[in-house]
Amino acid sequence: MPSKSFVFYNNKGGVGKTTLAFNFSAEIALRCPEKNILLVDLDSQCNSSSLCLGGGQRGQKRVVAKQQASKGVKTFFVDRKRHKVNLDSFVLNARDERRRTWEEDCPGHDLDAHIPANLNFVCGSADLDLYASALEKSAQRGSDEDYPTPFFDTYNILRGPLKELDDTWIVIIDTNPSFSIITRIALVAAEELIIPTSLDEFSGGGAATLLLQLSSPPAPQEGPDGARRFQFTSLRKLIENGQNSERTNQYCPPNYELLDLAKIRTIVVNRLPFQPSRAIQNVQKSFYSLIAQEYLQRPESFAPPHLPPGVELDEAKDIEDAEQIVNTYYFHQVTDLQGTMSISHNLGIPVTCMNTRTYNMIFDYMLEDESKTPRIGVDAVRFGLEIQDLVELALQSSWTDECSINGVVKGGKSEYKWDMVAPCVHDPSNDDPRRGRRVLALERCSGMPKFEVRNDDPATPDREDEEKMQPGSHNKRRKKK
Q1: What is the average pLDDT score of the chain?
Q2: Beta strand segments in 109-237, E
Q3: Contacts of 108 by beta carbon, 8 Å cutoff, 6+ apart
Q4: What is the DSSP string of 106-140?
Q5: Are 58 and 362 in contact (CB under 8 A)?
Q6: pLDDT, tens digit, for every residue of 198-230?
Q7: What are the DSSP calls for 314-365, one per residue?
Q8: What is the pTM of this model?
Q9: 20 to 30 Å CA-CA from 243: which of 115, 256, 298, 417?
Q10: How far apart are CA 153 and CA 121, in angstroms?
Q11: H helices of 226-313, where?
Q12: CATH 2.60.40.1120, applies to 4-272+275-335
């Protein structure tokens, strides 16, 4: 089975699941060149697949072509149920797929080199949601001699093929913002769950609903009239009921497996403003308290935190203990990224793979006042470093290949290892303010605003350079003069 598997999910749309999943996958591919990285696109919008195939409208057209060639994930599900096919024939290499099309569609653009050679993907299907009803019926049909475990077989349709992969693979699953059976299959297939969210009321409410959907809800209470006031079935309860029903029938095989849910690894507060307002800070505190309550009541829903050698985690006895544990080990912040993300989405380039300040964006249509060559700012460097932090939190490992010491790259194993627990916790013997994060190619670009990492906040760029990137900042300077 793969050495690691992650699923990105929040039932609220627009929180950056696909953007984070794509950049997360590319960064792991750069970080672990000896591994095969597989990004499985279970979102019917197919945005992850579009990015892997070159981004923009070209990527969307190529996704349609893959579906027409029966290379989409829906075709895999259908063939898996009928013929027990393997996943191998549906795995595509992102760089190889780009190389076949870039020379023909975009002569002079050598953008296939911007994607890691070991990044693979399973292409999404626009009609995947339509197949969900067939999967629901399959899971709910009764057991018989010819089909003894329909519930298990349906929910194992992705988990089974992934378990057939060896430990050289790391799997990332991108999902759609709904709790359909497609998403439930993904939550059963992966080991760990990464929850992207934003600091607004709707996104925070979506995360709260997600926690309720995953865990066992409170017991129903009866009102004065004897009616049950709370009726809800969580995914955990749904799986337990479905499997208990199959385990007790006469057709159940002796080697029947029990399914488990992905455990929460990280909650990513995405698109955080560089200088959040007090209102956003209040929402942030409320959201942290919500997650801490869940951890205090159901710590088994969370993956064990990555701890340094010799460090033991005390049990949370009250909400203060839970808040400290959650803030230290389970939360990660990613600041807002605007203009650079348009370039990334248009060309299908992960931010941490960008190596020049300007890119010629490719449009099938172009407004007269729009620039085809936007410039990349210091916000891209900050985002790239935060993605590195997110990968480190997920993989629990040390930066021992190339380590940046005060901006200088030193090859080989460095004595400054980065045993990360969270971005705010590091080895006290490491005096490197960058905490071992590798120098991005963008930081070496000529004309790039200087990015200085300070000891008190290693993810904070120079304020003067950041001010230059803020919309309308030139107007402020003009008024001062």
Answers
A1: 77
A2: 119-122, 169-174, 192-197
A3: none
A4: STT---GGGS-TTEEEE---TTHHHHHHHHHHHHH
A5: yes
A6: 877 676 667 777 888 887 555 555 555 555 555
A7: PPP-SHHHHHHHHHHHTEEEEE---HHHHHHHHHT--GGG--SSB-----SS
A8: 0.83
A9: 298
A10: 23
A11: 235-247, 278-297
A12: no
